[in-house]
Amino acid sequence: MRDEMRRLIELDRERTLFTHIGAILGWDQETYMPEKAIEERAEQLALIEGYTHEKAVLPEIRDLLAALEADAGLSETEKAYLRVARREFDREIKLPSTLVTELARRTSLSQAAWVQARKENDFGKFAPHLQTMVDLNREMAQALRPGTEQPYDALLDLYEIGSTEDGVAAVFADMERELVKILVKIESRPPVEDAFLRRKVSAAAQARMSDYFMGAIGFDRGRGRLDTTAHPFTTTLGRDDIRITTRYLEDYFPSSVFSTIHEGGHALYEMGIDPGAEFRNTRLADAASMAIHESQSRLWENIIGRSAPFWRKHYPSIKAMAEGALDDIGQEAFLKGVNKVEPSLIRTEADEVTYGLHVIARFDLEAALISGSLAVADLPEAWNKKMKDLLGLDVPNDAVGCLQDIHWSMGSFGYFPSYALGNLYAAQFWDAMKAELPGLEDMIAAGDVSQARAWLAAKVHKPGTSYLPEELVQKVTGAPLDASHFTRYLDEKYAAIYGY
Amino acid sequence: MRDEMRRLIELDRERTLFTHIGAILGWDQETYMPEKAIEERAEQLALIEGYTHEKAVLPEIRDLLAALEADAGLSETEKAYLRVARREFDREIKLPSTLVTELARRTSLSQAAWVQARKENDFGKFAPHLQTMVDLNREMAQALRPGTEQPYDALLDLYEIGSTEDGVAAVFADMERELVKILVKIESRPPVEDAFLRRKVSAAAQARMSDYFMGAIGFDRGRGRLDTTAHPFTTTLGRDDIRITTRYLEDYFPSSVFSTIHEGGHALYEMGIDPGAEFRNTRLADAASMAIHESQSRLWENIIGRSAPFWRKHYPSIKAMAEGALDDIGQEAFLKGVNKVEPSLIRTEADEVTYGLHVIARFDLEAALISGSLAVADLPEAWNKKMKDLLGLDVPNDAVGCLQDIHWSMGSFGYFPSYALGNLYAAQFWDAMKAELPGLEDMIAAGDVSQARAWLAAKVHKPGTSYLPEELVQKVTGAPLDASHFTRYLDEKYAAIYGY
């Protein structure tokens, strides 16, 4: 390896150290930090973000990139790394460091305000912070693409390279049509019984279930852990320190079960990235994209985690842990219950059919917030209207309405589409995996997910950012992204459950 | 305030932010970090320590100090700040940054190795790390005082300015003589019954007791929290983020009760430091010294926390929380039990008389380790001999012997004397407080410690580093440090308990 490459990696790793330190501060803020510490925490985060940015835009990096790009003798991995390093440098250099630190400071305060506002069901408390997040994100979009009239595109690109509002809108229009078709078929059948899922299960019992499922999917406890937060998430505090969170709703235990599996899927991805020892803790060891990330969480949560084979193995254990709440419920009934399709208010607890409609709502709303066609003050009303139009629901209050998700409080505008794209990738990966691993569903029914995990690790996780998302899906499945895998998966699944 | 002062404070605050960020990383390592994350955590800590040091030795600070020192018009507080800033700059500038980062990296690894070695009772696993800690501390001593033949003095000075091995040895010789006198009187009397303290109390019940006592002493939960670790400690993650830890031994619940009150005393000190809003998060808002720090923890743990008035108020509550373990034990018997004097193996659980002997043992041993007259490999034997000589005890294994304390694993050589000095300061502060607050013990018996807390905050906590420890004790008590307060306190206390 050339000295310039070595040096580029060294600088990249120092930046990564700062990234991980920032993640530790952020994780602590969400999990254990005492309330009054928030002001200084915001300063600490701003300081770390400032250094992270500074490390990413060193003039030395520009010189190293130029020297290496002129070299014809690089390995394929080195070339891939160089592409990523160039792309990220060119992106970060456009961001003024004052904007980066201001965003970090304001985000920390905004998240804390969101937690309070959600708890107290008081949108007014959060509104000024949301306004700041919108303003700073618009400013970031202008910095990334000076003079752009589509600032939302610049933000979408941060999560899914090359994606645009028009492109996503076209995919979503098709998706909405297909989802509604399936929904109509389901609604033609008698509803599934799921009231038993609302029976009380203590937080302690749910914690045992979460721990059980971490084991069941092969979460490496030596390299991560589970805690509780207002909103479940996964965060990377170090290459060997991947943490997930969940929340325990005593009157709806499936929430913690499926969010633990969901975040566990994210964690398995992070734990599996390994483009070679030389590239550890470099940008080559990042996730390919947020949609690819969501493909891993949704694959584990839904395609595996809500499947009949999975529960054939695990239902008896969960029944035994449920403090009597499932004593009179058979496996078949439980499986149907956790797959019940019905429009509902909370995205993270939505079924697989209506989930996409939640995402479409958020996509439309955040695009409007960023373009300016929707004012922050009008968000609750606009949210409630979307829920009525797309899901036919009345929203009783903002806590279960526009305050339910953490994303906007973190200034993540453009992230939501990743969830729906993740579903599409997940179904396509799943079809490829099934074709390559005969007897996969039998293995899952026997409690053995090691081959599934190994397949995902080798094919999807390991390369990190070596491939663009579209290259990755082509390489792994032999075809470009094709939404029909997802709709076929849904249609077959619900035909079995609802008998249509 | 002059621009130079403002700028000096600004730079100092950035350094403090890094200090607090390092504390977050360290706290997380001890509380929640998954095992395999340790290697990268060591790198993260080294990075942060490196920046902390760099911020402390900026050439700009030298210029600012010189400009301000030439100014005759500074306020008293500004002058005090300038003295501290000068002292710390002159100290830190002597430390090469390579040493600082190496020490941080090695300390993190050493602490993790210590936790394992202690758990497995395997000194051999810890020995190479201890050797590194000794070597790096010797190197630090030489950097601080080039050519010194008393490297331990340079380390003592880090915790208690101006203290020397000879000076401490002289104080300790007197103290040992007095402690032994009291011990002889106690041993002339029938032993106190305390076997009931070994009855099982669950960790959950102990956690409720700890929470209760945090409330009882006035710990501000909005500015801190309690977690569990291998060794109890207090750490400052932010001006409004002071965290304490304890451990729950199910067969000895007083351990968590008194360590929570002890660490709570440290936390009240950190929470009370306030030399003025302009000096927030500067070095003027540090603790005056480690001995002063220990005076606060030991005052709360022992002088208040093991006193008859304190338990008059709290015993009924604790009895009710003890899951039946205290049902047949009266308040008087309990008070005697938790004040039982008897040589024992574990320092943190030692009574107030033999505690000083534990400190003397560690002082002798660490001085010998640093001077080189004791080899690391010979530590277990030397430790066991000390315990025999000073306490008459045989040490069954290293886990309850030379592996019991965290300090050397953290490279803290020179800290232990602070505990014994802290006892002396504590007793002297206590006498002053009693003289100024009539009815103090009645208030404590009524569960009201607000006046005691306010007195300590105003007199001892608030000034931070405005005064040297010897100036502070003079200012607060009207006299220089005088060990007779402590021995008189002990003698009166144990005369009552043992009836000699």
What does this structure look like?
- 2 copies of one chain form a homodimer.
- A 3-stranded mixed β-sheet of chain A has the order 1-3-2.
- The first copy, chain A, contains 20 helices and 3 strands.
- Chain A has 500 residues and is mostly helical.
- Chain A is globular and about 65 Å long.
- Chain A has 2 domains: 3-148, no CATH class; 165-498, Neurolysin, domain 3.
- The mean pLDDT of chain A is 97.
- The longest helix of chain A has 29 residues, at 3-31.
- Helix content of chain A is 64%, strand content 3%.
- The termini of chain A are far apart.
- The interface between A and B is large, with 36 and 36 residues.
Write the layout of secondary structure elements.
The structure is a homodimer of 500-residue chains.
Chain A: H1 3-31, H2 38-56, H3 59-69, H4 76-92, H5 97-120, H6 123-144, H7 151-159, H8 165-187, H9 203-217, E1 224-228, E2 234-238, E3 241-246, H10 254-272, H11 290-304, H12 308-321, H13 331-338, H14 355-371, H15 379-391, H16 416-436, H17 440-445, H18 450-461, H19 469-477, H20 484-498
Parallel strand pairs in A: 1-3
Antiparallel strand pairs in A: 2-3
Helix pairs in contact in A: 1-2, 1-3, 2-5, 3-4, 5-6, 6-7, 8-14, 8-20, 9-10, 10-11, 10-18, 11-16, 12-13, 14-15, 14-16, 16-20
